[in-house]
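<tokenise_the_fold>
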Amino acid sequence: MQLFSFRRQFMILITGCLSLICLVAKAEFQRFQQQTNEPGSLSFFVVGDWGRRGLYNQSQVANQMGLIADKANIDIVFSTGDNFYDDGLKGVDDPAFNESFSNIYSAQSLQKPYWFSVLGNHDYHGDVLAQLSPALRQIDSRWFCSRSFRISADFVEVFSVDTTPFVDDYFTNPKEHVYDWRGVLPRKDYLSKLLKDLDYALKYSSAKWKIVVGHHTIRSAGHHGNTTDLVTHLLPILKANRIDFYINGHDHCLEHISDADSKIEFFTSGGGSKAWRGDIKWWDPKELKLYYDGQGFMSVKITKSTADIKFYDVFGNVLHRWSKSKELIDSVTHKNTYT
């Protein structure tokens, strides 16, 4: 273990010159077919909990993402939520969108990839419909945010799930926070449909690699720990459909847990800006492969037979490397790099 606009949208849908094509899945999980820069592989970054107008090393993380993307030929970027602190966006004209996103991730190498974002609990404190609005793509064409969706690239599918409505405390004990639950209520019906659609999409996916992305933790040694509501309601579906990875933010750290019970690899990439130094709970060292309480991000490269994961710190150092092979029998190797 290592401690440490409508018009714009319409044009996207109908033009062949862009790599993103929207499809409608049978289970109503909005689906996008992603073409890749390199045949036979999909490369992407994952960064979460970042939207602080460049503060708390957000700009430094963004700079390293740009430098590494210049060499890595990244196809897309996933944001694991809490995209705009502290209380989401106030509307589609909120200057925070430019101040925390467009002006920060400004490297040329980060202009091509689409940014696929899920909502975090802090995003629900603001105007959720603004953050979901296609009007933001008139401001920055990279931006795509939806509650739940799937990205398909032949041999791999990434399923993004809206995890905030699962958490009971946000409804029963919201404290000083006001949540924008438009589109979620009645909650029971929303969650039931989401779980049913996800189960259907996973079950009938022919992808060799299945990855699920959400904001909240399922397994974590960080500040929030395991999210019990997700362990109860979401994890059984992930286990039953034998997904490979669950990737989240919420805990402001970089983390890798190999869960002996579920056989799922759990990755936390929540170090996009403010981190929580020294905030770690005990975890079985046989399972906890990485815990880093600083800023950084994660990269993933997947081919038909291999998945290669790297975690980078704010200086661009590789903190942790891990790979998995799907040749005949799954084999796992990992290597930690101390910097």
Notes: Confidence is low (pLDDT under 50) at residues 4-27. The CA atoms of residues 64 and 316 lie 6 Å apart. The chain is about 20% helix and 25% strand.
